[in-house]
Amino acid sequence: AARDALPVLFVIQNNKYAISVPVASQIAGGSIHSLTSGFTGLNRFVVDGTDLLESLRTAQQAVKLVRGGRGPALIEANTVRLLAHSSSDADKKYRSEQEIKKDRLLDPIPKLETWLLKQKMLNDREIADIRLTVKNEIDQAAEAAEQMPLPQKETVTHFIFNPEPLKNTDS
Q1: What are the pLDDT digits (tens) for 75-102?
Q2: Do 9 and 39 contact (CB within 8 A), yes or no?
Q3: What is the SS3 assignment for 31-88?
Q4: Are 76 and 43 in contact (CB under 8 A)?
Q5: What's the rounded Cα separation, in Å, for the pair 84 and 100?
Q6: 9-14 and 73-78 strand pairing
Q7: Alpha-carbon distance 64 to 66, whole Å?
Q8: How confident is the model at residue 170 (pLDDT cuts 50, 70, 90)?
Q9: Which of 3, 34, 65, 150 is such that its CA lies 20 to 30 A from the CA of 93?
């Protein structure tokens, strides 16, 4: 994408863990932003992914560059991981209780709610109503998904790859 100045936006959610090891132990340089420093033509950003407004401003800037023909952009959104990676991941073996408590204070949803309350854009009742609406939408979507028929085995390769060879359009 960088070599050919393709209009691509990469968004990396960095919760500081690569499944069960700190990302610094998994990635050279400790972050995707550092790892991609040698990609000439790649517009790179690091943002506090727990801050909605900062994330929005950064995303708008990156999209403007991409749409303006200035090549691809990469946003590394640093965030927190509030739960284990999966049901088989015992994150308490490699994360202290203090670290988890600290991360909970950075949870982006209560962080945004607090900001909205301070700005007097919403009150406690309105926030509770939004939470209930979102919960109901998620519950309904989950129920609808569970009611869907299982896919047919013959469709396993649909939308995975293009069986037609690419045609050279350079001639």
Answers
A1: 999 999 888 878 788 888 888 899 999 9
A2: no
A3: CHHHHCCCCCCCEEEEEECCCHHHHHHHHHHHHHHHHCCCCCEEEEEECCCCCCCCCC
A4: no
A5: 10
A6: parallel
A7: 6
A8: low
A9: 34
What Rg value do the Cα atoms of the chain yield, rounded? 21
d(CA 171, CA 169): 6
Tell me how far the alpha carbon of residue 148 is from its chain's centroid.
27
CA dihedral 49, 52, 53, 59 (to 10 degrees): 60
* Distant-in-sequence, close-in-space partners of 158: CB < 8 Å, separation ≥ 6: none
Show the tokens assigned to 102.
């600290």
Which two tokens mark 94?
Answer: 């490699």
Please, what is the end-to-end C-alpha distance for the chain in angstroms?
22
pTM, 2 dp: 0.78
What is the full DSSP assignment across 97-158? HHHHHHHHTT-HHHHHHHHHHHTTSS-HHHHHHHHHHHHHHHHHHHHHHHHSPPPPGGGTTT
**Nearest by Cα to 47 from 36, 32, 37, 35:** 32
Tokens found for residue 10: 């990469």
Residues linked to residue 74 through DSSP beta bridges, in sequence order: 10, 44
